[in-house]
Design goal:
The complex is a heterodimer of chains A (363) and B (116). Chain A has 363 residues and is mainly α. Chain A has one domain. Chain A is built from 15 helices and no strands. In chain A, helix 3 crosses helix 12 and helix 4 runs antiparallel to helix 6. Chain A is globular, with a radius of gyration of 22 Å. Chain B is flat and about 70 Å long. The chains are: A mainly alpha (363), B mainly alpha (116). Chains A and B meet through helix 2, helix 4, helix 7, helix 12 and helix 15 of A and helix 1, helix 2 and helix 3 of B.
């Protein structure tokens, strides 16, 4: 615990705050800090998109025994940057019959919704822009705004493919949101708090996935399935089933607006993985094994931010693995899976967890 | 940071998308062409409008979602206090889920979950 404090980011933020306060007035300090935070998050957002798209293409390539992008930069690392620059220079088209206002509004909604969800992520000890006491509730509220953007995009395009894709994805995201929310609530029974930093702190002596017995493992499995479905990723990518709907809800989008939908998909994947890591795998808490002191001390030397990103990457890799190995589901199979299997199962699981907590059978 | 700073993140999102679209407006070529503005339909000329009546099955799922989502809001509060209330909360949630389960079974038997 002593070592952990080395990596406490609140010292850093405090130092910046005092330094700025010494230089200027209260109001301008506030303004400068806000601009600083905003810029950092914008940069993080952009880098996240570039890295994840590259990672996805490489993972896909490895699974399909290909090389993936290799030409631009060393091992193709600059490929996504090149793609992005190309998309900026592409002509943004709007169809003749489209609802022009809604058509332009949709990318704004999807990006802002995911941006506001990233804002509360606990990246490391003391490295969290906002720490609400209703954190988990806030995330589930904000991340469900994204679906309105998909519906708006599909409707406004006035194209048949877009509309079918959007309606399918609407039904899918709405349905799977239930299971995702309920599986998180299973853990909330144990934490007794929705505040993300408190949820992380409560896992100092072990992660909830171990401490909650079989019930939290079931919850995690449900969460990862529902999370994959919520981000519209394969095998649940009904919204943009390429072989039947060309590109689904963003068929009519081109250039930079398409890039934003693409970016949002990857950021949403990050959000799901980050919530999963925070709630089930202890967020930035290092891995500790019982009373094995030597091992625990070594683990403490790894900075908390590295732990967070290691866990998140592991979950993201799992989701990519799903996408490239499972065949796509049909819409009726998709809804059957949710309403007849996952939803009753997650309700049962909540009861089981409540029973475990009542009996004190968790650690 | 306080909850007011949510506005900051809202503005940052606006700046990101607005800036991107603005940059694209300045940099991208604009060549007017009548066929370019057609909605995509595998290369053949577009037939009719896309804004038409849609399968009602999706609507049923939306209604069901509404019921269960409201139920989730209640469970949020229950989950927070489960540990302190103990047995009382457990019995209450049993009754609550029993009623809810009957609702789900009813929808199931009525065929609302069937896709045809």
């Amino acid at each position: 615990m002593k070592i952990l404090s080395i990596y406490d980011f609140s010292n850093l933020t405090q130092a910046i705050h005092t330094w700025l306060s010494g230089k200027m007035s209260v109001v301008s300090t506030q303004v400068v800090e806000m601009i600083l935070v905003g810029t950092v998050f914008l940069l993080f957002f952009a880098v996240l998109g570039l890295v994840l798209v590259y990672a996805e293409r490489k993972v896909c390539a490895i699974i399909q025994v290909r090389l993936g992008p290799m030409r631009v930069g060393k091992w193709g690392t600059a490929q996504t940057l090149a793609d992005f620059i190309k998309l900026v220079f592409k002509e943004p088209l709007i169809t003749r019959d489209a609802d022009k206002f809604l058509f332009n509004l949709a990318p704004f909604i999807i990006i802002i919704a995911s941006f506001m969800a990233v804002a509360v992520m606990p990246f490391a000890k003391g490295l969290q822009a906002m720490d609400f006491d209703i954190g988990l509730f806030y995330i589930s509220a904000v991340s469900s705004i994204g679906v309105t953007s998909i519906l708006i995009a599909g409707w406004a395009s006035n194209s048949k493919y877009s509309l079918i894709g959007a309606i399918r994805s609407g039904a899918q995201i709405l349905s799977y949101e239930l299971s995702a929310g309920l599986s998180l609530l299973t853990i909330v029974i144990l934490t007794g708090s929705l505040q993300l930093s408190e949820i992380v702190e409560s896992q100092a002596d072990g992660w909830w996935i171990w401490k909650g017995h079989v019930s939290s493992i079931i919850a995690f499995v449900i969460f990862i399935i529902a999370g994959t479905a919520e981000t519209n990723r394969g095998p649940f990518d009904m919204a943009e089933a390429e072989s039947e709907l060309t590109a689904g809800f963003h068929t009519e989008y081109s250039g930079i607006k398409f890039a934003f939908f693409f970016l949002a998909e990857y950021v949403n994947m990050f959000i799901i993985a980050a919530i999963g890591a925070t709630v089930f795998f202890g967020g930035w808490m290092p891995l500790h094994v019982g009373n094995f002191e030597a091992f625990n001390n070594i683990m403490d030397y790894i900075p908390s931010v590295v732990w967070f990103f290691m866990k998140v990457s592991a979950i993201i890799f799992l989701m990519m693995w799903f996408r490239w190995t499972f065949p796509r589901l049909r819409i009726d199979q998709l809804l059957t899976l949710e309403w007849k299997y996952l939803l009753p199962l997650s309700l049962m699981n909540i009861l089981l967890m409540a029973f475990l907590s009542l009996m004190g059978w968790h650690f | 940071m306080e909850a007011e700073s949510l506005i900051l993140f809202f503005i940052a999102g606006l700046v990101l998308v607005g800036g991107g679209i603005l940059a694209s407006q300045l940099l991208a070529p604009k060549l007017k062409n009548k066929t370019k503005e057609d909605a995509y339909e595998c290369g053949i000329p577009t037939e009719g409008a896309a804004w038409m009546q849609f399968k009602s099955g999706y609507y049923l799922f939306a209604i069901l979602f509404l019921i269960f989502e409201i139920e989730t809001v209640f469970v949020f509060l229950w989950a927070l206090t489960m540990k302190t209330l103990g047995m009382l909360a457990f019995i209450e949630i049993l009754i609550f889920f029993f009623i809810l389960g009957i609702g789900l079974l009813y929808a199931w038997k009525k065929g609302a979950l069937k896709w045809d």
